[in-house]
Design a protein that fits this description.
Alpha-Beta Plaits, alpha+beta, 8 strands, 11 helices, single chain, 2 domains, globular
Amino acid sequence: MTVIRRLAAIVLLSLAYSSISLGQDNRTVNPTPAPPNLLLLVRQEIQYGKANARKKLGVAIARACNRLEVPNSWIDLQSLTGPREALFFDPFDSFEQLEQSFDGWKQIYAAHPDLARMQEEIDSLLTSERTIVAVRRDDLGYHADNIDLSETRFMRVVEVRLAPGHESEFVETFKILGEAYEKIKADSPWVVYQVNLGMQSPGFLIFMPMHALKQNDDLLSWKENLQEAEGEEAMKRLQEIARESYATAESNLYVVDSEMSHVSKEFAAGDPNFWTPTPVPAAKPEGTKGAAIAGADQDITKVNARKTKEKTRNR
């Protein structure tokens, strides 16, 4: 979830990059299942033993936001490899939309202080947090237009940090890989984002969405075919680039947690049983916006009441 203090810093920094064109769509929520033009990626490491508490708060916030008109959506990714962490994948169309989201969250938190307090409680359970803003690079992806994020259940994420001045070599790498994948007719697409804010050295993020872990078996089986498709000279060039240009490179696997995600109704329509597994109680006959907000506040109140009872028992 996009926290107000985090967005404040990002919006201020983004003013220096206002010349970047990312589309003119002024929607406050990106409902489409395609990879977004602009990505806000939040990496959170959780204190040992606090995962369950973090989960309860995250689910309560997501359910409350499902009833409210919040400014943006997010997909929660939980690590299966690497450090125990959560990634929040927040899609935006532009920096302008990101700024609109910042203004919207100020209003949401002012109207629902319990929601803001629960977010602060989540912050207290973290050992670290890093926020990255990245811009989609269509020239480096592989069949990225075929990606439907609503079908994603697992996400392979590769983070590459480059030595300064070696961006062109990275671009060359993915053009070589893309051509090789085309030759073997691989059917696992990827999308590439170039880090714009939040990382010291030049960096890129590669996302490979998967519906099932079986696709990792496919990647392994393609390895020899890829080497043959690339050719000896191309393989040597890739090794040379990695040796001279990459400061670090790390690949990890994540699973989508639909309970802690908040997506639009249009997005969830791709698989409503997955994205909305728990039926949301129907609004009262009046069907007013106030009834929806009351339902959200009731969820938050229940969580706080349960926590109060737990504290009383422990005295």
